[in-house]
Amino acid sequence: KQEVTQIPAALSVPEGENLVLNCSFTDSAIYNLQWFRQDPGKGLTSLLLIQSSQREQTSGRLNASLDKSSGRSTLYIAASQPGDSATYLCGGTSYGKLTFGQGTILTVHP
Amino acid sequence: DAGVIQSPRHEVTEMGQEVTLRCKPISGHNSLFWYRQTMMRGLELLIYFNNNVPIDDSGMPEDRFSAKMPNASFSTLKIQPSEPRDSAVYFCASSLNQGLETQYFGPGTRLLVL
Questions:
Q1: Nearest CB to B107 within list A31, A43, A46
Q2: Residues of chain A in Cβ contact (below 8 Å) with chain B
Q3: CA within 20 to 30 Å of B47's CA: A57, B54, B57, B105, which one?
Q4: Phi, psi of B7 (to 5 degrees)
Q5: Contact check, Cβ <8 Å, B104/A46
Q6: What is the DSSP string of B12-59?
Q7: Tens place of pLDDT for every residue, chain B, 114 residues?
Q8: Shortest CA distance to B94 belongs to which of B2, B4, B13, B1?
Q9: B24, B25, B27, B30: CA torsion to nearest 10
Q10: Does any CB of chain A come closer than 8 Å to the CB of residue B25?
Q11: DSSP class of residue B101?
């Protein structure tokens, strides 16, 4: 059974700082790894999807990496902004099922 | 595209009542997922469908929960009878390629069972 863990549970940074969110998973038979953003009271918005054959994906100020051998993924956010404040969730797809971590609550203060 | 549509957005009901949650996936997507989110357990997959067929319902908590997908554009999640511990946010998501592509989430239904 796939288990996904995210560290840290919460992170508070000043505006402009670069930051890294961590995600680890137990089952290396992962098909893809997805990063989502969730704003309070809202649904999830997909940020990046990394296929198992890929090492990283980039979108604007976001870069996600995947290392299947170590069971880890990271989400790098460059030049953080207050609008980046949200909960960030990672999820690994194995056997057609997406298993989520508990999320990292990010606060970027001006 | 309007995205994944869920209704109702909020539901308050009394213990023992039947609750029906509805979902319309993105047109053309062949996979549909029902999730439940709580503070204690996070986001959990309840059941998913490929081409309208239930593939894995191992996440459905118990027999009080049932889900159907009568056609490619509509799914329901029913709780009968409802209990206070069912209070949660229920999300529907859809994707292409049997869930191996990006999943797109609806806004969720916030359920409160009194």
A1: A43
A2: 31-32, 34, 36, 42-46, 49, 89, 91, 93, 96-103
A3: A57
A4: -145, 150
A5: yes
A6: EE-TT--EEEEEEPPTT--EEEEEEEETTTEEEEEEEEETTEEEE-TT
A7: 689 999 999 999 999 999 999 999 999 999 999 999 999 999 999 999 999 999 999 999 889 999 999 999 999 999 999 999 999 999 999 998 776 788 999 999 999 999
A8: B4
A9: -130
A10: no
A11: S
Distances from the Cα of B104 to the Cαs of A72, A90, A95, B3, B113, in angstroms? 23, 14, 18, 8, 27
Token digits of residue A73: 């993924």
Facing residue for A43 by CB, picked from B44, B101, B105? B105
3-class secondary-structure state, position B1: coil
Shortest Cα–Cα distance, B100 to chain A (Å)? 6
Give B 49-88 residues with CB within 8 A of chain A.
50, 55-56
Using CB atoms, pick whichever of B45, B103, B107 lies closest to residue A42: B107
Scored b (16 or more CB within 10 A) or e, A20-47 reads ebebbbeeeebbbbbbbbbeeeebbebb
Which of B55, B100, B106 is facing A31, going by the closest CB pair?
B100
pLDDT tens-place string over residues A22-48: 999 998 888 999 999 999 988 999 999
Distance between CA A90 and CA A93 in Å, rounded?
10
Q: Is A39 left (phi over 0), alpha (psi -120 to 50) or beta?
A: beta
* Residues of chain A scoring pLDDT < 50: none
Q: Does B105 touch chain A (CB under 8 A)?
A: yes
